[in-house]
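Continuing the batch. This is chain 6 of the set; chains 1 through 5 are on the previous pages. Same settings as before, nothing changed between runs. Recording input and output for traceability.
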Amino acid sequence: MPGSRKKYRQVVGMLAVAGALILGTATAFHGFGTFFSRVYADFLYPYLELPNRAKNLLSEQTMFFHGKSTLMESLKELQAENRILAARYASAVEAQFENRELRRLLELDRKLDFSYVNAEIHRREPMEWRERFIINRGAAAGIKVGSPVLTFRRGQTGQVVLCGIVKSVSRHTAEVITILSPHAKISVKLKEYDISGFINAGTTPPSRTQRGEFAVINYLPTGYDYQQGGEVVTGGFETHIPAGIPVGTFDGVIGGDSVFDNRLYVNGLLSPAADLDNIRFLIVLTRKQDVMVPEPKL
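Output for chain 6:
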């Protein structure tokens, strides 16, 4: 009996020592589990990879059994799918650009009495490319005759400028005439001199020179030494066009001396601030009062 107890205690002691050794070894070697798993994976890699290799080999062998016509059809389907994906990507990039440009347009200084309608060019006539175009918004969106139409300044995307006014409106479209059209009669002001005039109010048509195309500012008073480069803004004589919207740059007086002249008024040239050749996004300002404004006539 005493011998069996002694033997039992020896067995328990040996098990305790073995457990302590195992626990100590596991604690000392923290990366033992990771090391063992890597060795295990490396050892069994050829066997684990065997099904994938067999699958790829079967696909390659199966391809040889297809006829040339079948392979050509598959190639055409892949090419068509690639074209669709490329078109979707291009459309997404274009939409991102459009959203960025529209956000910039909508960040302009809002007038309390006006509503803002975003629009795009729907159609342009090659023979009147810089004078008129059709936009994709009309009476259903609140567009009215005489409403000012804004776009980005030439070469910039941080400031909007006047490019024209609405001449006629249908339910879903509107015709816009630019400041280069002889029918666009708009009051303007030369900020440097605080002097008002009117675009296309006289008989002198818009001027085209080697330096570009210009609108004509009529009824500028004499007695001033007008210099090129001054900013021209809307004059605010029309109730439907807010004052102070940039229109372009003054390019000098047409003929004669504006200081010593026997005429009451002189005419000047206006270089449009808008790039009329590359307009894309537009903002149309309409008064919130539900009143149709007639086309301005001077």
